[in-house]
Design a protein that fits this description.
37% of the residues lie in helices and 26% in strands. With 116 residues, it is of the alpha+beta class. The chain has 2 domains: 4-75, Ubiquitin-like (UB roll), CATH 3.10.20; 82-115, no CATH class. It has a 5-stranded mixed sheet, covered by helices on one side. The longest helix has 16 residues, at 100-115. It is rod-shaped, with a radius of gyration of 25 Å.
């Protein structure tokens, strides 16, 4: 077992991607990595107590013990619920497309132009 761990901390926003490697003691936890990388100073909107954090896509707590070469990911809160976003996209698609009868009438008119 090594005395030190190299950990990568990742925080991505729509404007920037922050990836910071830190070297920590072998008994380090997630909170140690986040504090050591300086992301809390660089992104003042982050609050250590309310962060959602994961390691390779799996949610973890601040007290989770780290292993060598892990990637700690800091997740942003969702702006919109994924199901609500899907409903909005579906609704806007329905509003943009003409109904079945309107399509049939348009196709019939086009056929009349071609035959006439």
């Amino acid at each position: 077992m090594t005395d030190r761990l190299v950990i990568e901390v990742v925080y991505i926003t729509p404007d920037a991607e922050r990836v910071v490697s830190v070297e920590l003691a072998a008994d380090a936890v997630v909170e140690d990595a986040i504090v050591a990388c300086g992301i809390l100073q660089a992104a003042p909107e982050l609050d250590l107590e309310t962060l959602q954090i994961g390691i390779y896509g799996r949610l973890v707590s601040l007290s989770t013990k780290l292993e060598a070469e892990e990637r700690v990911e800091i997740y942003r809160p969702l702006v919109l619920d994924p199901m609500a976003a899907r409903r909005q996209r579906a609704q806007s698609t329905v509003q943009q497309r003409p109904g079945r009868r309107a399509r049939q009438a348009r196709n019939a008119a086009l056929n009349n132009l071609d035959n006439g």
